[in-house]
Design goal:
With 289 residues, this protein is mostly helical. It has a domain of 37 residues. The protein is built from 15 helices and no strands. The longest helix has 18 residues. The C terminus is likely disordered.
């Protein structure tokens, strides 16, 4: 059974990571309103409809994005940017058959276009053809001078996807990507996740240990290691990793909340007390006679 201090370490780690993981989505409302006013003044300009369609896409309003792109294509069916944007929106709307057909038409004219190849691959993944999709992603990445890290990760996930997934090929692709763009932590961490998801902790843990050794603030990775080990029934080793994670957190420059937590953790308290507001004092209600 895990000790209360170890459970506390896991809870504190999870809370801190959840707090730092939140990211604000940019507010696109004002920009959409501005372009809408431009469309009202010049409704026959297809570029404005495309511009607003992109904003709707960025705001994850897929149906409205598609309506704007379709209107732009009604005004000018030859606008290639609108054709490609339409494919991207259809992928997000989970209409892969239409997306694939649109990507095929576009690639007939622009066989080396990397964005079209990526969208073609995503449609194929949605249609249950990850092996063919991985070949498309390979072709797209070869044509990019500086491929995005997310795309390199997507290729690895595609290689590992499905019942016939090739974990070895996925890990090799991540290792090769690291050689191309440098030892990016997200690539190395993805290899750990893929190996663990495939039930290959014999591959995941050594990679994770190597990553912990070179990471200046390894609390999150140590917490991941603890959860992985506990999930495999290796409770003592998992507890030790959680303890190390807690130590890594407390070694950081303490925020006000951490300053209150540290003494209680060191005493092995099961949980920190509720913080008081600055300047407040806790009064004890007199007992009734």
């Amino acid at each position: 059974m895990l000790k209360p201090r170890t459970i506390l370490a896991a809870l504190i780690l999870g809370g801190l990571l959840a707090a730092t993981a939140a990211a604000a989505h940019p507010d696109l409302g004002e920009r959409i309103t501005h372009v809408t006013s431009q469309i009202a003044a010049n409704p026959e300009n297809p570029s404005l409809w495309i511009r607003r369609g992109r904003l709707f896409r960025d705001n994850r309003e897929w149906e409205r994005a598609l309506a704007d792109v379709d209107h732009a294509l009604e005004l000018d069916p030859g606008i290639e940017a609108a054709q490609l944007l339409r494919v991207a929106v259809l992928v997000q709307l989970d209409r892969p058959g239409e997306a694939l057909a649109g990507a095929d038409r576009y690639l007939d004219q622009h066989a080396d276009d990397p964005e079209a190849l990526v969208l073609h691959a995503r449609a194929l993944v949605a249609l249950g053809q990850p092996r063919t999709a991985a070949a498309d992603l390979d072709a797209a990445i070869r044509r990019m001078e500086h491929p995005a890290i997310d795309l390199l990760v997507e290729r690895a996930r595609t290689l590992a996807a499905g019942e016939g997934g090739d974990l070895d090929a996925a890990l090799k692709s991540l290792d090769e990507a690291a050689g191309l763009v440098g030892p990016v932590i997200s690539l190395r961490l993805e290899a750990v996740r893929l190996a663990h998801a495939a039930g290959r902790d014999d591959l995941a843990l050594p990679r994770l240990d190597d990553l912990i050794e070179v990471t200046p603030s390894p609390a999150r990775l140590l917490g991941m290691r603890g959860a992985m080990l506990c999930g495999a029934g290796r409770l003592d080793e998992g507890a030790a990793s959680f303890e190390r994670a807690l130590g890594a957190i407390l070694a950081l420059a303490p925020a006000p909340g951490c300053a209150r937590v540290r003494p209680r953790c060191e005493r092995g308290s099961s949980a920190p007390s509720s913080p008081q507001k600055p300047g407040s004092s806790r009064r004890t209600r007199p007992s009734k006679p």
